[in-house]
TrEMBL record:
The keyword Membrane does not apply. SUPFAM superfamilies: alpha/beta-Hydrolases. Pfam families: Esterase. This is Alpha/beta hydrolase-fold protein. It comes from Faecalibacterium longum. Keywords: Hydrolase. One of its GO terms (molecular function) is hydrolase activity. It comes from the Bacteria.
Length: 255
């Protein structure tokens, strides 16, 4: 079951209405005493419905979770669809410059503060969640993948596991590397991270950069599942194919 509603969001251009989504697992109604882990996701318009998706193709997350009877709640909020690439502002924790699009003042910290202090408490208050960090996940792709990795590192007291698909590591590699080195991590932190082999050429040195980032993360003691997806590209159709790997990692050995 998926519920969809409008929620007030403090966007970079001021308060605005955003579509929010929550997926409830197949056994939710039948077992009224059970509580569930929650996966928070970026780019919510692309998570469930093709008709809402930016490019007409979603990840099909609900279909997969229904088919596998996975005991998980998924909560997502749509991204900023502004014509001036406001999504890049809201989904970057750091300021950065892009040759094609120009300069961006990253407001990703503000975005994550809203997820942590506004959206998560709302979901915990209205649904039967297991709200501790061990059962609180975050995930996304591209800029949403960068945000998910950042959230796991910077908000380790909130998020115990994350999925970062095709993360935009190119945005601010030095700042992200520094964060990996200094962040305080709780034991048992879990990360799924991948990159498509066909998208490696989108940015210079991406294969090398992805490998180096994985090595640094692994050295910090994070339980890392890292993959280069054979034939994978930068699209919802490709990310949908990775769902078995994503959810196997997020749910593995979870109490």
């Amino acid at each position: 079951m998926i519920k969809k509603w409008s929620i007030r969001y403090p966007a970079v251009g001021g308060e605005e209405e955003r579509r929010a989504y929550v997926y409830l697992p197949t056994m939710y109604e039948a077992d009224p005493d059970r509580r569930y882990p929650v996966l928070y996701m970026f780019d919510g318009q692309n998570v469930f419905f093709n008709e809402d998706a930016t490019y007409g193709k979603s990840w099909g997350v609900a279909d997969y979770l229904d088919y596998t009877d996975t005991p998980l709640i998924v909560a997502a909020v749509e991204c900023n669809a502004g014509a001036n690439n406001e999504r890049l502002v809201e989904y970057s924790p750091y300021r950065f410059d892009d040759k094609q699009y120009g300069h961006f003042d990253g407001k990703g910290k503000d975005t994550l503060n809203w997820f942590v202090h506004e959206f998560k408490p709302y979901i915990d208050a209205n649904y039967r969640t297991d709200p501790d960090r061990a059962h609180t996940f975050i995930g996304g792709s591209s800029m949403g993948g960068l945000m998910s990795l950042y959230a796991l590192l910077q908000y380790s007291d909130v998020f115990g596991r994350a999925a970062a698909l095709s993360p935009s590591l190119w945005v601010a590699p030095e700042a992200l590397t520094a964060l990996v080195g200094r962040c305080k991590l709780a034991p048992g932190t879990v990360l799924y991270m991948d990159y498509g082999s066909r998208e490696m050429g989108n940015h210079d040195g991406m294969r090398k950069g992805f490998g180096e980032m994985c090595s640094r993360i692994f050295a910090r003691g994070i339980n890392l599942t890292a993959r280069v997806v054979p034939g994978g590209d930068h699209s919802e159709a490709s990310w949908e194919k990775q769902l078995p790997f994503v959810f196997h990692t997020l749910m593995y050995e979870l109490d």
